[in-house]
Write a structure and sequence with these properties.
heterodimer, A: two-stranded antiparallel ribbon, globular, B: alpha/beta, 13-stranded mixed beta sheet, 13 helices
Chain lengths: ~575, ~350
Amino acid sequence: MGAVQNAFQPKAGTLRKRRDWWTRSSGLLAGLLALLVAYPLVRVVVRLFWADEGPTLEPLRATLALPDLGLTLATTLGVVGGSALIGLVIGGGFAWLNERTDARLGVVTDLLPLVPFLLPPVAGAVGWVLLFSPRGGVANGFLRDFLGFFGINLVEGPLNAYSWYGILLAYSIYQVPYAYLMISSGLRNLDPSLEQQARLSGASDFTVARTVTLPAIAPSVGASVLLMVWSGFALFSLPQILGSPTDADILAVRIVQLLSFSYPPQTDAAVGLSFIMVAIVGGVYLLQRRVLSRGRHATASGKGVRAQRLTLSRRGRRLARSGMVIYLVLSTGLPITGLLLVSFQGYWSPDIDWSNMSLAAWQSAVLDNSATRRALINSLQLGVAGATLGTLLAAIVAVLVARRPTRPVLLADASVKLPSAVSGLVLAVGIVFAFAGPPFRLGGTLTILLIAYLVLYMPQASIAADAAAGQIGNELSEASAVSGIGNGSAFWRIYLPLMLPGLLAGWALLFVRVFGDLAASAILAGSRNPVIGFRVMEAFSNGSYATLSAIAATIVVVSCIVVALSTALARYVGRRQSSTAKKK
Amino acid sequence: MIGVRRTVGACVAVAALTLSACAGEEAGGNEAAGTAEEGAETPEEAGNELDELVEAATEEGSVVIYATPAEPVLAAVAEGFEEEYGIPVEFIRLVGNDLTTRLSSEADTDSVYADVFISGNPAFMTDAIESGWVRNPLEEIPGLADEWPSDFIDEELNSAVLQVDLMAVGYHTDHVEESELPASWADLADDRWDGQILAAEASAGETMLMNYYMLYREYGEDFLRDYASNIAQGFPSMVPMTESLNAGEGHLAAPVGAILPWNANASGAPVDTLIFDDYIWGAEASVGLTEGSPNPNAGALLAHYMYFGGGHDILTEPFGTTSPVSEDFPSGYERADFDGARENRDLILELMGE
């Protein structure tokens, strides 16, 4: 009797360890993934610290000796930090309005903060320039005409895309989606009983939000901050286009200049600068892990109960919805409108000649262009494959970290996140070193692009999966172990379904990033493996704004459709989980 | 006083070319520059060599080129070559360091894909020769060493300039009257252009640095400093600069590749192009042959087609694009001085306020 009892009584505070095939396989997979991600990075790092003669610190010294490095770092931190703060306020605000009030507009509201991501940053920046250049901006032209009615006659302006506020606002638009996705996912999966108990105890809605909701969704907030910091540091085309006239020296632009604007490319200095990014982003990552490990945050319980939504007044609801729609119009509708106008007019001009509108740019750039069509199909395939594979692998690693945070597992997890701190261009060069030549010989193939996208964007998939896994309470896995369910079944039948809404949000983000990627495509794409991001960069560097606009608008349409479908699916899954739990 | 040329219709005669009957339509050497030397192969020998090359290339069956010209131009070259020799061409358009990074990465990893390339970066060619990444086109392209204008052959770089994109000034026709047009580069330092000039940044790349160095070399420090002070806005490349000119962000864009404002004009934008013939230079591009390429003979044949065959006419057809053997090649042309630009990089950046 005692022996039987002992077999079913695990040691206090721990689960009975079962080294089944799933644990071994997923561990191996995590290791291989980490290797895939780390190998190109290692090839690049070796070049930084090892010359033909042996170990050297010369490249690092050369990096630290770069002129105005301190100013560049300070400027970058200011822009990234400021835009992350703005993004957190706007994105978090939208997430709260969607998940905790009755101000939702259904799927439309869900898409609102995501839409900026549908436009590649280079096209978005060009769109702002088209609208708000001091003299030639179309919107500025309208504003000057409007002000002229009141006797205010301006020669240029009144707004200026090439300004510090212009840069900060443009950055913020690309930060909001990260904050919105992570925080809304956290709110959706939050056990509402905590908030209900607080209300029952007499706490006001504001007190509940401040003392219960916000601390409970700390993992999601932490994940969003990490993603925004990573994203902000990696943004290159936006500061390059808007920053030049303001002398805003941004780290990512400096790295690309070292790689692309001089020959021979100063790869060593570019890698050295990237390692400064590693230190900063790594620090934010450690902070996030610390927040998650404290455990003082809410988790999804075994019961699926919907959170109580705050009923706003009619005026409040109208204000909230109008605010969200206005944000959509201003943040994304405007630049897309600017791009469309230029694409139909054939050139950029503040004076729109409606009689000159035609599809000439669309025909030459997209419709009659077999290379663009082929690039679109390739990008679509790579986007779906990359997002699916990346999300699934990230989920496996995240569950492993949540259930068996051993040192090798944590090392694999860190390896997967490491590329987030390194410039995409530097990683792309590393991938050429690692996979283009023998023994792999993947140069010029879609496979090497897929590898590059997994390396580049696994960090954000991993962070999204971490947040989703972090909200699955231990009691669920303990219950599954007691019931005799294996680790593999527990993953597919318990973890994955519960993580699905969060994973789908991460999938959508991963898809748009892969679909519109520029960094890896510039180095690895060609006529054998064309992708759409490369053609956008080509249009910016060697084509025309009309061509760029036509291609960018096509990217927006395709991305919109895919993201709308995945968002609707996430909502459907979430509702089914809630209703299934209610029936029980 | 040297007048201002506003269209490429104004032709400057170059020395007559000698055509080789065996190779069909070919451009021969420039007698004024001096070509035929004692011991040079005869036309018959060149013809035999070409026939052998055609045979070997046909056996290889395909060719890949990395090149800087615009895609429609490359597509036309590919189509013409395949029509003439029955060998399909795969072209990949790459510009600036994208081209050199890809070539060097592939050579470093023993995964050479391109057989031939067009590049305008002498620093890369120096590196490529030292590293053994390239073969010598002067030895492998029939007739190139003997018939091409010697002033445009650089034996140290194993290259012969194929194509020149002339540098020009773009201007907004709504803001600048004909009578107000600058008469030469020197006029750009004038106070009346204060805040009206759009320019690409000198730090944006080797070509831009070279452009400003060419201006400095001819007109001096004071000119460059005054010209820089007239710049309203700097840009990371010539395309956004030209686009901004289209929108009237400035009245002039300089220096700019002549084809850019011309293309904008063709699309209906209120801009036009000014080429000064008192001091003229351009971005020069040469053909390179990769070492270890999959189809070396096809690569050499395609290169020959671009220097001497129908490819030459296709590549030099766009406005502002010419070649040392073209009829309209400017007589006062100055060779692009990348070496001088690199040696004076810090000074140029300082004068440009960067």
